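REVIEWER CHECKLIST
Item 1: Sequence provided? yes
Item 2: Single chain? yes
Item 3: Sequence as submitted:
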Amino acid sequence: MSETLDSNIVSKKLESSSEHAKKAIDAAAQAGRTVGDTAKKEAKAAYETGRGHLGAAAKDLGDAASASYGHARSRANSIYSDASNRAHHYQHEAESCIRENPLQAVAVAVGVGFILGILLRR
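Item 4: Structure as written out by the authors:
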């Protein structure tokens, strides 16, 4: 009888052990799902944060490029305006000089034309 009692106890302990093992496996599976879900949520949040920062970086880069373009354009317009004013000033001076000394101007023009003619003929 003692053997039957021991056999019953062993059988119950094996069943209990089996149930505990199944529950442990279920708990591990649930933990795995929870970890997966948490990791998925964290990854999605990190992705959204990164996406937002990339968008902000692109906007800042575009703003910087626009500002730089505006500055360069303003500077180029200023240089063009300055050069144009100087050209008009030199043109006015040349016209005044020609009006004051017409014979000299004609002589210089003939001389320059003669020299250019010789150089271009070669």
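Item 5: Key structural point noted by reviewer: The CA atoms of residues 44 and 50 lie 10 Å apart.
Item 6: Recommendation: ____
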